Structure formats: structure tokens, C-alpha cells
Amino acid sequence: KAKHEGKSCYRFFEQGMDDQAQKRRQMELDLKRAIEEGQFELHYQPLFDAQRQKISGFEALIRWNHPDKGTISPINFISLAEETGLIVPIGEWVIKEACRQASQWPDDIRIAINVSPVQFRSNGLRTVLLQALSRYGLPPERLELEITESLLIENVEDTLKVLHSLRVIGVRIALDDFGTGFSSLAYLRSFPFDKIKIDRSFVVDIVQDKSCADIVQAITGLAAALGMETLAEGVEEQEQVNILLQRGCNNIQGYLISRPITAESASAFLEGALPSYREQKTA
Ligand code: C2E
Ligand code: MG
Ligand code: MG
Ligand code: MG
Hints:
By secondary structure, the protein is of the alpha/beta class.
């Protein structure tokens, strides 16, 4: 009997695998279609300078408006897009759309976009960036590319070549989610990043756990010495801001300031038409 059960379990498992593979294939087809039919949308989350009490820019975060499944978060489709290479055309759309939108905003507002390692290693990136910047008349220093540490682990030589070629264009480069993965201080020597984005995991417990605050201080100290800005991700409470400022981190991003919002709401946010953190503070 046990044997029989084992076998049926196995069959059930195989069936499960099939379902998964089937779902994946379907999702890949859906993704291709999403590109053709323009089902993606960018939401924008403010980057806030807590020292000057001023918005310095927005990070563009992709959303997929699936015709049947509703809004799909990037955490649920970026990895499949990377595995299938579809991230390259998706990423091109992100660059164009973000540059188009940013060109509508004031000159002192930057736009940050996430660049997948797969897109980073693809050949067309530099050309796509140059075309988008010139098409929308966006000065390159208003565009900030967010890359992750994983790029600095493999093919370091190639990565550095690409980074330097992007630096020549004049776009800014930020190191995203710093402190996760296999962080190494050596990365910070290898390239003059404009900004280090300190991962949310150091912010979450910063009020309760002094070691998080100490780590943040070490990162901001190092960054300052190297001429790099820092920004803390995932800031949800005022008390976290107070500690971040004490520990040398002036730029923040998180639900405290605003969740990612539509382009329309972001424009209204800039004009002060939406209730914002700044107003709460001064009220
Ligand atoms: P990320 O670049 O680190 O973006 C920050 C993520 O944290 C966003 O999730 C944002 O909504 C979320 N977040 C912001 N503030 C808070 C907060 O106060 N608390 C909490 N709990 N979360 C906060 P989202 O939009 O779901 O994006 C997830 C990830 O997907 C991004 O992480 C990025 O790695 C990737 N991604 C998003 N858009 C793109 C894109 O256009 N291209 C590529 N290649 N990746 C993208
Ligand atoms: Mg990011
Ligand atoms: Mg991040
Ligand atoms: Mg993150």
C-alpha cells in the first residue's frame, strides 16, 4: 500500500511540474503579447532629500496591467523576463517611457530606472539610452541607472567597461539594494558610483537595532569619503528618518514619503497638489 501511495504521490508531483511548466509557457506568451500591446505602465516613487526637504527625483517602477489577471508586480515577472530575454525589449520601453515622462518635469527632478543585469549585458543599451535622451531632449545627468551588486561579481572587466562607456554619456549610476547579496567594499573602489542605495533590510530595524544604525553610518562614512551619495530605501516611519539623518544618510525613499504613484499623481505631487510628507511636516 505504501508503495502504491508513493507512486501516486510521484505522479501527482510530476503532474504539478507539468502545470508549472505550462504556466510558465503561458506567462511567456502573455509577456510577449504585453510588449506588443503595450500593457506595461510605470509608477513613480519620490526620492526625497530629507536635509533640504525637497524631492530630488522619482524612481520608475514597472507594473503589468494584465488583461485577465489585473496588475502584476515586477517581482512576479521580471525573473521570467530575464530568463527568456524579454527583459531587453521591456527594458527599452522603460528607458523611453521614463525619459519621455521626465522631460515633462522640472529640470531639477531626476529619473531613476532599474536596469536588469541581462539588459546591462545586452549590446544595445548604450544606443537605446542615447536615442531616448536625444529624442526627449533630456540632459543625461537627469537620468540615473540603478544596477545591482550581482553585476560586479561575474565578468567584472566587461561590467566596468560598460559602466565607463555609460559614464561617458553622462548618465548617473547608482548601486541598488546595497548590503544584500555578496556585498564587498571592494566594489566601491572599482567604480565611482554616484549613489549607493542602502537596502531596506538595514532600515526596517534601525530604530530597535543599533547594529543596523552602525552599519548605515559605516556605509555613509565610506560613501562620503569616496564622493558618493547615499539613499535609504524602505523608510516608513519618521523615527527612522531621524536616525538616518544622525547617521549621515540624507536621502530617503519609502512609504513615509509616498508609495509608487501614477505619472499623473507624481506631477500633482510635484505641484504640491497632493497631501505630502512635506505638508504633514510643516502643518
Ligand atoms: P527596487 O529597485 O529595490 O525597488 C524598490 C521596491 O521597494 C519597489 O517594489 C517599491 O515599491 C518597494 N518599496 C518602496 N518603498 C517601500 C517601503 O517603504 N516599504 C516597503 N515594504 N517597500 C517599499 P516594486 O515596485 O514591487 O519593485 C520590486 C523590484 O522589481 C524593484 O526593486 C526592482 O528590482 C524590480 N523592478 C521594478 N521595476 C523594474 C524595471 O522597470 N526594470 C527592472 N529590470 N526591474 C524593475
Ligand atoms: Mg531600484
Ligand atoms: Mg532598491
Ligand atoms: Mg530592493
